[in-house]
Sequence to fold (605 residues):
Amino acid sequence: MQTPPLGSPQPGNNPHISRRGFAASVTSAVLGAVFLPALGSSASAAPAARSRAAADPVVGGGDLGPNVIVFDPSTANIQGQLDSVFSQQESAQFDTRRFALLFKPGTYNGLNAQIGFYTSIAGLGKNPDDTHINGDVTVDAGWFNGNATQNFWRSAENLSLTPVSGENRWAVAQAAPFRRMHVQGGLNLAPNGYGWASGGYIADSKVDGTISPYSQQQWYTRDSNIGGWGNGVWNMVFSGVQGAPGQSFPNPPYTVLGTTPVSREKPYLYLDGDNYAVFVPSLRTNASGASWANGSTPGTSIPLDQFYVVKAGATAATINQALSQGLNLLFTPGVYHVDQTINITRADTVVLGIGFPTIIPDGGVTAIRTADVDGIKLAGLLLDAGAQNSPYLLQVGPSGASAGHASNPTSVQDVFARVGGAGPGLVTTAVEVNSNDTIIDHTWIWRADHGAGVGWTTNPSDYGLLVKGDNVLATGLFVEHFQKYDVEWSGEGGRTIFFQNEIAYDPPNQAAIQNGDRLGWAAYKVDDSVNTHEGWGLGSYCNFSSDPTIRQDAGFEAPVKDGVKFHDLLVVSLGGVGQYNHVINNTGDGTSGTSTVPSNVVSFP
Fold:
């Protein structure tokens, strides 16, 4: 596919913005020597080591492995080390290298930390202001000719910044969370030149100045404090954000909830004195503002010796043994092949990844499965489908789970799923949620539309997310390109605050997506049996590049019942490459022409 010329939309305009599907498929080039030793997969572990792991107790704690780089204010040549990592990761979209850049509490002057693929930067203080950078944490799109729509898989967390120019640039797309950050200035979400951008997610942060999305098509901000918001293109959603603009969808396209019904901030690694620990924030209800805005985040600290630190050579057997001993898991940066399902059965288990650790199931197993118990926390993981079909990448609770967890729900945060792109990938359903009351807080579930191992019959996958549990809440839900429903919701009492979707680009013809008497499979389907459901700020885009004559009946389908409610829906045809007939069911004007203008529904039914 050819990339059209980049435009230069001006701040505040509603430009004709294309999505990354228009861009040529990009695979990462072979870069220079690896800065730090590459991580091996489970297959690299020696048989003797595997035998010992099966017989001896797994020991918690220890070092964080070779791909975690820890700085303190006295570290020499910090900028040079940051630049070395970035030079490897800037365009390494489907690479196997992973990095976590961790800063001990203190003040750092004159830094520009440019953040590339599979790179996390984070402070090690208890609170963001404990670690301050007089400088910038930057994401731009020079590697892709000013197009930011493929700036995936990177993160910033638990730092405070004073940007050199007064405004920090964070021009990201999906799977690039900005959490627990304090920007003592403004935040620019667009690439240099205001090229195409498609993000993004902010939570538990303070931005003293204005956040300026410019060309960003959509964005979700949760439980934060901001000095102002600049503009909107298609879909800007806020919940629990002090300083957010007023409700005004679709002009400007702002969807605003004063509070977030239920939230729990993501667990994070920090230094408790001289020792590493993981802090687990407490559950919040009807939250507004950052959890640390008026003091330390409430919660519980768990010392690192209560975690199995997963590093190169770890096997699924050892990981499961650690879990059975009552240990939590801290995955360090790397790529891990597992030949058996990681089974999490103990209530309140924490599974935390740093530096985008990637878990690939081998032999068609499910990568991770949880029991129907209270308070499991899954965070900071990339689940990558393997070459043999798996039924699921992640299954939260077994089929038929029925226990209530309202006072201590399982949370799934910054857990991303990928089918193809980095190589062959096969899975029937990427994520299934069966446990009641689960919180899904920021996920990108992606059947790849570019990269390696991509095609209608090459990386087939039916469903992105199936929600069967009751009272499940999704805050920041990104699901794209699956061959049937991207999201299907059959549990009662479900709620979604912000949804971003692209229908699969690559069906070969209309017949390939015929769904009974419906043209196409909805991006977001609420089953006819459901009596209560609510959604705010949901958008779906089409770009049927294999056959532009394809029509989709609607982006959304739901039963017409008093208890099923939607607020601020939109569908967009990207450049007229295929069209929607309606927004939801048979409601809402269809898209038409090549103007890439949304069709909106403010309230349904």
